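Weekend entry, working from home. Most of the wet-lab plans are on hold until the incubator is repaired, so I used the time to fold the two sequences that have been sitting in the queue since the last round of cloning. Logging both here for the record. First:
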Amino acid sequence: MDSRLDQGIAQYQRQRGEILATLESYRAWLERYTDVESGQSLRLYDLAESLKRDKLLLAFVAEFSRGKSELINALFFADLKQRLLPSDVGRTTMCPTELFYDADSEPYLRLLPIETRLRDDSISRLKRLSIEWSSIRLDPADPQQMSAALRSLADVKRVAVAEAQAMGLCDAGDIVKSHDGMVEIPVWRYAMINFPHPLLKSGLAILDTPGLNALGSEPELTLNTIPNAHGVLFLLATDTGVTRSDLEIWENSVRHHANHHVAILNKVDMLWDELKSEAEIEQSIHKQKQHTAQQLQLAEDQVLALSAQKALLGKIRGDQALIQRSGIGALESLLADKIIPDRQVILYKSVCNEVQTMAGASRQSVNMQLEGVRQDLEQLSAFSGKNCEIVTNLRDKLIKEKSAYDATTMNFKITRTLIQEQGRLLLDALAEEVLDEMLVAGRARLEDCWTTPGLVQGMNDLFAQIIQRFHEVEDRATRIVELLDAAYLRFHQEHGFPLLSPPQLTMDNCRQKLAVLMLQVDQFGHDPVNLIMEKRFMVKKFYLSLVAEARGMFMLAKTEADSWLRRSLDPVVMRIRDHKKQLEIRIENIKQVHDNLDNLQARTLALKSQQATLEQQQAEIGVILQGSACLSATVASQI
């Protein structure tokens, strides 16, 4: 029987498919009934692709030997009847490991050599360079081959202290412990597993992170990967509770990020004392959960106690009593009932709202055309005999109306040109070259001073410049909105257009991401270890990761600003175009009647046919909008 988690992810996939279907229905409607503009078509394509590529990322974070890999095996891969990830004593994953499904590639394990740390390349960049990775083909039908291949994740090797120091993988404690000038380091820096598991096919992605040393030596994980996860599962040992190293990981890598946090007291079976009653055992577990919640400053329902090993064993054996006692059901329910639905709401807000805005504008355009046709039919039905004067007056009235409309649109062309120029300047303010200039200047100041204080000062200066740039962009956007407000009002007053209110552009989303980066810089700068020890290598690595994050955030700001410009300008441009087309059709209809009053009946039939076509368009776009609204309500009700 499917678990609650299986059901939740299946629902996530189903509703994502429904959003895609709505998107496709609207795109098909546009192609059938309109001359869809290339920009609008491209935007719909981008929205669909973003949905198809969307992943629900769960990050498993903990110190070594807390049972992360075993919990991943129990949650997602028990149906394989064996451990997918190595989790034996002394044989656990030694590098960050990402599990996902890519339909465009055969199953594989890709391993990034640890030596790539000698370069300035980020993991994100190296993911695009397949030549840098060692690749092993995986055969899902051969459990032995899979198991042998994935044991590579636990590989370590001994290298000279100097070599480890050059890669930033050796501290004073390691040197003291080394009796032969050699230290042990991981063989691999990062691993990617493309595996056709049903849950991964449904859009789930998993990140298994090693302990404190690996998180500290790869700032990209703390600055990018973990903050972008939709849920973070922080594992602790039930018998020890929150240790000093656990708390350091929690404070530096987890706590301050704006996503779901779940603390998991693993290995709860260590408290299953046969000399104690079930009530006494439960009381011990409850006290440990309360204490953990206080230490981590979490609500008590965000702390769970379970046994990953017993859960995996119970699922492999089909032992429902052991599965229930393991406590894994509470975690599965939390993931299915909270984290996954929250991600669905984010999907709706990012895609459905935009589709509804565009489809709503299309429906209003159809409604306006339909109202014009109905008015023409009413006027034609009032004609009697060969009353040429009535037809002539109507024709002249429409021609005059079109002349006035042309004057208004000519005036709007000037406004549109001004808006486009302002929009170009707005986007130029967020161009990559602008950030590059800031970074070049900042790096020049740091080049001879790769110290913690130097990093903090340099990054604070950069962040201040970026924030100032955001203020300038928002000010320019406000001026654009004022121009659009005036244009909307004129078309409303003179031609009966619906009175629209253009959306405001805000950089708050990017400011929040920047605030997280600033917090990370502050934590790094006040870490006593970084202040006391020479950390030139780590300072530089941290700087490069910060720069990569700042660049991504800057590009996000530009993407959001570009999308805002289209959302603001496209509706009025579309209405102007459609209204002009409608007037031209009406004038042509009246002209034909005027030239041949005997053709009155034929023109009336033609208008009725046009009315039927528009009513069909109206009905279809109504169904699309209703479906989108229903999907919105369904997703929102799950929170």
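Second, folded right after the first finished:
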Amino acid sequence: MTSTAASCLLFLTMKSLEEAELCFPELLNSSCRKDMRPHSVSMLTYILLTSISLLTVTLNLLVIISISHFKQLHTPTNLLLLSLAVSDFFVGFIMCFQIVVIEGCWSFGDLMCTLYHYLGFIITATSVGTMVLISVDRYVAICDPLHYPNKVTQKRVKICVCLCWICSVFLDSLLLKDNLEQPGRYNSCFGECVFVINYIAGLADLFFTFIGPVTVIIVLYMRVFVVAVSHARAMRSHTAAFSLKCSVSVTANKSELKAARTLGVVVVVFLVCLCPYYCVSLTGTLIDASTATFVICLFNFNSCLNPVIYAFFYPWFRKSIRLIVTLKILQPGSCETNML
């Protein structure tokens, strides 16, 4: 082989490799490059994100069908669970786009990129806001049980849920105004999906979707925990004076402690899933692709755990799953089924 032929072959080989690393090979000078990762890492990421997405969509869809279909489940607390399930359902749905961009190439255009990020901000804010409403509901139910039926009604809960969604849309529209007015304004090449918010908007988002809600949730749940423990201690002290009520007291004691432990798990899981993501946002440090993927997966995994934490602890949910899977909900009058 002559030196000229060898040089030509080397040039063609290098060109083909370069095109293979581009998102759009036909746009040689303006295309973004793919994120070249080991095949095993890419496959693991695909499997992880796909599993979380399918599980999140399935579990939350079961919660949505259960609460919407059975009339006996139309309670104020379950309406909050329904709102949370709807927002978490969309979290699982938009994770499909994260699976598509694993290689670092966006193929749906600037408008879809903007809508994808915009919807993600709204859903996250709504999910966190609904969790705050749930913590308020549990606080009133445990700390002021006598006035709970009058304070927490279906009408008030519906209004609060609607306001939560409306405020999330309004707030995120203000924070993301620049991106919405000119989609793709921060993209440096074709195949990129960049969404940038300024420093002030970032701080506002951090406060309204993390620092503020987390503070409220922790304060309310700590108060609930203290009340639950005090009730358990009071029941223990009464067992010594009233032996005839011993069995009832022990049952109530176990129930209170179980509720306290459950609330502790809720807070811990919520913080574990969300803290890494917002800590990275707060520090503003640059992280590698693998760490970013892990943080995002953990953040989204919270939406998968929410139906497990808030719904699987209820016997009616297990019963509704059996009715849904066996298609008994399609029978006439199934919405009147006794679920409690």
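Plan for Monday: verify the second prediction. The chain is about 75% helix and 0% strand.
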